[in-house]
Amino acid sequence: MAVKQNDRVVVVLKMEGQHTGGRVLLVDRLPAGFEIENPRLVDSGDTKSLAWVGASGKPAHTEFRDDRFVAAFNYFEGEDRSTGTKPTATVAYIVRAVTPGRYVHPAASVEDMYRPDLHARTGAGTLEVAPAQ
Fold first, then answer.
1. For residue range 108-131, what is the model confidence (pLDDT) as tens digits?
2. Which domain holds residue 55?
3. How many domains does the chain divide into?
4. Which end of the chain has fewer CB atoms at under 10 Å, N or C?
């Protein structure tokens, strides 16, 4: 993937669990050269107007850190365990390419906080940020 410096990118993460219930933690580490546009600090980071994202599964907690996005989901809250509902969620956030260069794009990870044997990762890759023209 290649983007130009100052380009904004919408990151969409979709999680589909195979087991019912749980307290699930999603961590997406940013490649160097990118910064999250924190919606708590700037309006340009708000994804509510992006209806095409199809956000679902409201997180109990989110963090927009310098180097990662973190979302925690509590799938026991108000859940009837007899239904066998499996955890699903789609979350999005906006990043900006700030520093030109070639970077490693780390894998995102998701795990059940109290059952660490239940976990998954996305693929990793590389990307390039070209200087602004």
1. 999 988 888 889 999 999 999 999
2. 2-130
3. 1
4. C
The number of beta carbons lying within 10 Å of the beta carbon of residue 38 is: 18
Convert the pLDDT of each residue in 84-95 to its tens digit. Answer: 667 778 888 999
User: Which CATH number is 76's domain given?
Assistant: 2.60.40.740
Q: Check if the beta carbon of residue 13 is closer than 8 Å to that of residue 120.
A: no
Residues in Cβ contact with 22 at an 8 Å cutoff, skipping those fewer than 6 apart: 75, 76, 87, 112, 113, 114, 115, 118
User: For residue 39, with 0-12 CB atoms within 10 Å meaning exposed, 13-18 middle and 19 or more buried, which class applies?
Assistant: middle
Q: Which of these, 111, 103, 107, 104, lies nearest to 129 by C-alpha position?
A: 103
- Number of CB atoms found within 10 A of residue 31's CB: 21
Half-sphere exposure of 49 (CA within 13 A, CB side): 6
Q: Helix, strand, coil shares of the chain as percentages rounded to 5?
A: 5, 50, 45
Q: 3-state class of 71 per DSSP?
A: strand
Amino acid at 58: K
